Amino acid sequence: MSDTPSLDSPIAELCREKGMKLTGQRRTIAHVLSESDDHPDVEELYRRAMAVDPRISIATVYRTVRLFEEHGILHRRDFGGGRARYERTDDHQHYHLIDIESGRVTEFEDAALEKLLETIAARMGYDLVSRRLELFGRARSRKSKA
Amino acid sequence: MSDTPSLDSPIAELCREKGMKLTGQRRTIAHVLSESDDHPDVEELYRRAMAVDPRISIATVYRTVRLFEEHGILHRRDFGGGRARYERTDDHQHYHLIDIESGRVTEFEDAALEKLLETIAARMGYDLVSRRLELFGRARSRKSKA
DNA sequence: CTACGTGCAAAGGCTTTGCTGAAGT
DNA sequence: ACTTCAGCAAAGCCTTTGCACGTAG
Prior knowledge:
Two copies of one chain form a homodimer.
Chain A: H1 10-17, H2 24-35, H3 42-52, H4 58-70, E1 74-77, E2 85-88, E3 95-99, E4 105-108, H5 111-123, E5 126-139
Parallel strand pairs in A: 3-5
Antiparallel strand pairs in A: 1-2, 3-4
The structure holds a DNA duplex.
């Protein structure tokens, strides 16, 4: 029933490709991550993983996200609040806008912004290696967009 | 010799104006902050304060920066690495560029960037309340600027 | 079979806090 | 004199880690 390893989640596939040992726990976490479109923290991942397989420990979740990050599968984000949050690595450089009332995180891209940041760094004599940018906003009392 | 309270550091003056009790420790920390142009973390502030008056505890430094932050005298910054860093509150909206080799932090302002961020938030239906932006760069192998 | 992963609980780094003595206004 | 503050050490929160057992390849 489980001898079709190729049917694993996309992230589990990645693990296999990268040659890491595919344990039950990793498979579970990979599955959970593959299903996640948001930016869960470890606690939340632990919860989701437990829903799939209760025989998992939070230490393993910590170890696994770290491992996945080292392999370039995940990106660690810090939106403040003291806990790291994770998202799948994405090809596109993108940023985050956080709704200060609901906490909801929305991603966005902006080529002009990207270019401007590089220009600014260059002006200061630097090559831009990475950046951290989060916008915190309050939803407008929408008149047009209901 | 010390009955001219008006000769305190600028930040100590602020404390007085805001009506907070001006203890020896607070005066020391205010002094240290007034002399600081960088972005020290609590540990570093503690070190600097101790150099002035060794009878200070790190708990007091923590309490004081928190107090000052609540009174709008300081801004807490998070440049990653798990520790908060502090800087004097500044009228101008500014950002930080961190040299990834030396760790040195340089401040910069940029009106166009500011405007762009607001535009982006507006486009997404938000009023921009605050933002966090740090650029991490590597100093260019300067040819012109020695 | 062997190397690596997991669970548990303890420890680590930063920050806060309860309590009692000390100090500012 | 009264209220607030400081020092100390303990505790809290997130994360890492040592150790003994379990498991993938």
